[in-house]
Structure formats: C-alpha cells, structure tokens
Amino acid sequence: GAGVSQTPSNKVTEKGKYVELRCDPISGHTALYWYRQSLGQGPEFLIYFQGTGAADDSGLPNDRFFAVRPEGSVSTLKIQRTERGDSAVYLCASSLTGAANEKLFFGSGTQLSVL
Amino acid sequence: AQSVTQPDIHITVSEGASLELRCNYSYGATPYLFWYVQSPGQGLQLLLKYFSGDTLVQGIKGFEAEFKRSQSSFNLRKPSVHWSDAAEYFCAVADAGGTSYGKLTFGQGTILTVHP
User: Fold this and answer.
1) Which of A58, A97, A103, A104 should one mutate to test binding to chain B, selecting the residue with the greatest count of B CBs within 10 A?
2) What residues in B contact A3, CB-CB < 8 Å?
C-alpha cells in the first residue's frame, strides 16, 4: 500500500482479555517501530524491529506485551491480560533502513479501550 | 536520558498571524531533531528535521525551525498561519550516536487552535 496501515482502527475489550494489533508497513521498509500514545501525551517508544528481529524492546512496559514480525513485513503487537491502564492509541511507524536521521512514516493508529 | 519539553500545551492564534512553538531538549550531545504534526484521524507527519549544518531548516507547509545549541532549543515558526494548520505539534529527538536508529523521544505536544 501507499502508507502504513494499522488494523483495527478501534478495539474495545474487557479487562483480562487478549488483544492483537496489526501493522502493515510500507513495502520495502526494513525498520518498524511501535509507539504508545496516552491521552494528552506524546508517543512513547515500545519496540523497534530491524527485519524480523526485535533490535530494541526496552520500551515494552512488562511481559504482558509482546510483538512479532515473522517475515520482516507485517508486525503484530500482542497484549495479554489487558488492564484498564493499557487504554491508549498504539502507533506503528516504518522507515527505509532504520537510520536515526530517516523520516518515520506513521500509521493512523489503533485506539485500544479496555473496559 | 534524553528528554523533550514543550512548555505550551495549547496555543491559539488568529489566521494570518505569526506562530512560534517552543521546544527544549536535554541531551548530552547534539541530537537529531524533528517536528511532527498530528491532525485528527491522521498519522503523524514529518514537518522538518535537523541533523547538522545550517541551524535554520525549512520544512513543508511553510514551516521553519531554528536550532540554538546554547539554549538547547528547536523552536518551530511560521510567518502566517492558515486555518488548516490547526493540529497538534510534536517535537522529537533521536540519538545521533554511531549505533543509533530512529528511536524517537517525543515532547508532550502543543495543540494549535486557529481563529478565523
């Protein structure tokens, strides 16, 4: 596609449930990032993939959060035993090589609401 | 750890007026600096970026920003605001070290309202 695609755009779940959020980056982009944006805050880094591997997962808040990118393109962010505090917009971004001075292309995000 | 401060949570200007959004960063060396804009329902879009060289950088939509090392600032400016500029603006920094990648630290954002 022309841009970064995230699905679903909205996800409502109950506390304790498992959710998966999908990101389809721009074709050919080797770098993929997940960020989380809470209400009234700037995006916060979660995890960075270079190809299929997670090069930096230092932003994942705890072991309930996990992300994969098995074929080096689509990525899935997985959240187990969701908590109300997980409610936020989850943003995905990709860039061509991952260089620090590259432009990041962001998706429109998935609004996650945990009731 | 690096940090970014945007002192103004909300700014209101009249259409046609000039605009300056403030950004201060804390970092041990000169980082890579960015301004992104977020409109409702849309993804973050890069306005401009600074890496080195000329401290005044030009971006899209008529925006510019000036890097001032002595003040650790990277303020965003526009000489004449249009109603379509109403959005939320984020300043961000990335580590410019040798093994760095595009991991951004964002400020909390400034919401811009434009009055007709």
Assistant:
1) A104
2) 43
User: How many domains, chain B?
Assistant: 1
Q: Which of A33, A50, A101 sits opposite B32 (nearest CB)?
A: A101
> What CATH number does the domain containing B96 carry?
2.60.40.10
- Determine the pLDDT at residue B99: 65
Interface of A with B (CB under 8 A): 3-4, 31, 33, 35, 40-45, 48, 50, 55-56, 91, 93, 95, 98-109
Structural contact between residues B76 and B28, judged by C-beta atoms closer than 8 angstroms: no
Q: Over the stretch B95-114, which tens digit does the pLDDT of each residue have? A: 877 667 888 999 999 999 99
**Domains of chain A in sequence order:** 5-99 (2.60.40.10)
Helix, strand, or coil here: A53? strand
Q: Which residues on neighbouring strands pair with residue A58, listed in sequence order?
A: none
* Residue B30 DSSP label: -
- Beta-ladder partners of B58: B64
Domain extent for B41: 3-115
